[in-house]
Amino acid sequence: MNKLPGKTVERLSEYRRQLLGCLAENKSYIYSHDLAGLLHITAVQVRRDLMLIGYSSVLRKGYDIRELIDTIGRIIDYDEGLNVAIIGIGNLGRAVTGYFRGKRSKLNIIASFDTDPQKVNKVISGVKCFHTQDMEKMIREMDIRIAILTIPADYAKSMAEEIVRHGIKGILNFTTVPLNVPSGVYLEEYDMITSIEKVAYYVKENKV
Amino acid sequence: MNKLPGKTVERLSEYRRQLLGCLAENKSYIYSHDLAGLLHITAVQVRRDLMLIGYSSVLRKGYDIRELIDTIGRIIDYDEGLNVAIIGIGNLGRAVTGYFRGKRSKLNIIASFDTDPQKVNKVISGVKCFHTQDMEKMIREMDIRIAILTIPADYAKSMAEEIVRHGIKGILNFTTVPLNVPSGVYLEEYDMITSIEKVAYYVKENKV
DNA sequence: GAAATATTGTTAACTTTATAACACAAACTC
DNA sequence: GAGTTTGTGTTATAAAGTTAACAATATTTC
Ligand SMILES: NC(=O)c1ccc[n+]([C@@H]2O[C@H](COP(=O)([O-])OP(=O)(O)OC[C@H]3O[C@@H](n4cnc5c(N)ncnc54)[C@H](O)[C@@H]3O)[C@@H](O)[C@H]2O)c1
Ligand SMILES: NC(=O)c1ccc[n+]([C@@H]2O[C@H](COP(=O)([O-])OP(=O)(O)OC[C@H]3O[C@@H](n4cnc5c(N)ncnc54)[C@H](O)[C@@H]3O)[C@@H](O)[C@H]2O)c1
Questions:
Q1: How many angstroms is C1' of D25 away from CA of B14?
Q2: What pLDDT digit, counting tens, does each position of B94-131 carry?
Q3: Which of A124, A151, A190 to mutate to test the pocket of ligand 1 (most atoms within 8 A of CB)?
């Protein structure tokens, strides 16, 4: 499977999440337009995405939910799973970690790192917290490849450099600081303020 | 100013955030390529966005940071400001609220709503928490137009319907539940799992 | 003060992403 | 069992978004 459009990758993740919800409701088939409705997109978009990953429906019955979940998994998951660490287990770090727990996935948050002695060596949101001093050791020992950055902005830059040195290959950065990573490391950033300002813009312009 | 591309709106928000950071460092001018660097995009992109909003630089000195911040504000902000409420002041709600505080903006989180008696009537992350029973009254009284949904998934659907009835015009939905809003209400959704799965995909494919 | 340099604004070309069009096949319909 | 319906896979078309190209102009250099 060579290079899916980035947007398709995002939607595959969302399809799967919604499909898992459907499974929980004991459905076993779903039509493209129903799946589309869950994501607020068009049925054509769904069919096109699924075409790209080569998945075919049972004609006129829609897509086999369980099979589709597996197919998506084969595309976007790392076979053996990938280990993830949270760096900075404050409010946001706990929200992320708690959210992940229970959600099955090949992605496991298996450690958090913090400097606060109140937190170090405790289990927080179901995940053991280590001191950042031990980061190098733990990242290698636990084979952690992805880090989620939820520390105060001031430390973000040097922290990013450090974890990249220790072998992290992907970073989801929630701090507002512009990070620079070497090629070979994938960086994704998200800022809620952008989302809310966008909402505000459309509310203001009254465009919906 | 008629209908900017959605992506441009997002970037304007990001430009402003970075520009405010620059102001804090006592810079007063910035070149397109420097601003671009902060967002990991190209200088051309920056120039094109700023062209769209009709802002011109002082030639060869770059953009006047303070002026640009104001110009962006005139485009994306609501003149009198817009009031925002957090619904569900748990881990994520507190993270969002705390993050907003101090960030100047025409967007003010002025209330939170929850059902937990431990939280109601307390000030949490600097914002007063009200009981959801009083939501209708408070939304109208405080002229709240935008809501951020951070409640357990099960309640999301009915909550969305309720707040729309009470006059909310924009929703930022962090629950994983597919919401349906009537036209006239703008809905934005975000899911961290999508972000992380995307990171994982690119790490796996080793495309950077 | 002519030449070189740096940086912008804008049009045009390109790429990516989304939508539309439509032929096709299973499953009803009568 | 011919005809309609329904929902798909795919190719074609359009829209959105990005990058490239380049003329224009203030500043520096010599
Ligand atoms: N992008 C977004 O949408 C968004 C939203 C909310 C918060 N944030 C940002 O996320 C970060 C965390 O926010 P929060 O509300 O969880 O803050 P917080 O203060 O609750 O948590 C920060 C945590 O990081 C720990 N920490 C501090 N320095 C550290 C270091 N050098 N190494 C490791 N850990 C360290 C602290 O002990 C604390 O546990 C902030 O930078 C905030 O601005 C971003
Ligand atoms: N989209 C994302 O990226 C993302 C990330 C983290 C969490 N989440 C989701 O956000 C939600 C909140 O997560 P959290 O970690 O803050 O959970 P939490 O349990 O810490 O907080 C939930 C809060 O909602 C309150 N609440 C419960 N029922 C309510 C109701 N009917 N009306 C008003 N308030 C009510 C609770 O009292 C609590 O304060 C969950 O649905 C979670 O799945 C989404």
A1: 29
A2: 999 999 987 877 899 999 999 999 999 999 999 999 99
A3: A151
Edge-first strand listing for the sheet containing B170-173: B123-124, B127-131, B107-114, B82-87, B144-149, B170-173, B186-189
Q: Which domains does chain A have, with CATH numbers?
A: 6-74 (1.10.10.10), 82-193 (3.40.50.720)
Helices assigned H by DSSP within chain A: 6-24, 32-39, 43-52, 65-76, 91-100, 135-141, 153-165, 192-205
Determine, for residues B188 and A199 on separate chains, whether the beta-carbon distance falls below 8 Å: yes
Q: Residue B148 C-alpha to ligand 1 middle, in angstroms?
A: 20
Among the atoms of ligand 2, which is closest to the Cα of residue A98?
15
Q: What is the pLDDT of residue B196?
A: 94
Rg (CA), chain A: 19
Q: Which two tokens stand for residue A44?
A: 């054509």
pTM of the model: 0.93
Model confidence at A101: pLDDT above 70: yes
